[in-house]
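Readers of this paper often ask what the protein records in our data store actually look like. Such a record has a labelled line for the sequence and another for the backbone structure tokens. Nothing more is needed to write down the fold, since each code stands for a local backbone conformation. The record that follows is passed on verbatim for readers who wish to inspect the format.
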Amino acid sequence: MDRLQSALALYEEAMGYTYAAALRAAATIGVADHLVDGPRTPAELAAATGTDADALRRVLRLLAVRDVVREVDGRFALTDKGAALRSDSPVPARAGILMFTDTMFWTMSHRVARALEPERPAFADIFGGSLDAYFDGDAEVEALYYEGMETVSAAEHLILARAGDFPATGTVADVGGGRGGFLLTVLREHPGLQGVLLDRAEVVARHRLDAPDVAGRWKVVEGDFLREVPHADVHVLKRILHNWGDDDSVRILANCRRVMPAHGRVLVIDAVVPEGNDAHQSKEMDFMMLAARTGQERTAAELEPLFAEAGLRMDRVVGTSSVMSIAVGVPA
């Protein structure tokens, strides 16, 4: 590739954010719900969504490049790929899309060059306060963030519950498990298990474990996993360590090790970054973590010493059909 072609190729890369912006716009106005019954013209869609027909056509034309919609004879249809934009999708993606494209991530990503400086600015240096303060100042944004995280996680629950190294019987503790969506799936897939959900009081107060098919097989514990975790045969840390630096990650793992039986294990479920240059969503996720200054996605080689310092041995890393992998730790 000569220098001219190199420049042209990089210009195209630099405009990649336009796809995310178009996807956010489509999710915001709920255009997919108006394509349920088949293809429609931009004018019909504009009338249904209260938008300008020509402007909407241009947004949808861009999304057609990524196969979110398809244009045929001046009418747009929803593709299989775009189906999760529908509000009645089994795993509706709208909240997750709005979360990933929220002003916080856009702003921090735009300023990521500052995160490369030796003295990395904190979140407060950009937004004038902590992440908690950012959410406290806008209840709608906070609700969107947590709804987005739940919908993103829900798409992978079943995959991970089936791929996880769960015993036939015993107790599994979902540490920092939010409202219990993953634990509920684990209990349904493994009927011989008991479950414990640990999270902050205000989070577990809104748990989703009260389902007839798992009745009597779970309990909720209010607490802080940086201080202590409940006894269990299996401790699950799903999307937890990537939010924390190395020292706090070791503390969390050590708390699990302290109450783990000799046959116990910890399942660290995160987007483990593969070595090499191949595309993998974990690398994009790690960039977002860098931009937001809240943690990092790690390679298996970066996770291993954290396990060791906590008194654990990384037994294996199990890949799945999602971006998430399962790093299995056992007593050293």
About this structure: Residues 123 and 131 are 7 Å apart (CA to CA). The longest helix spans residues 139-154.
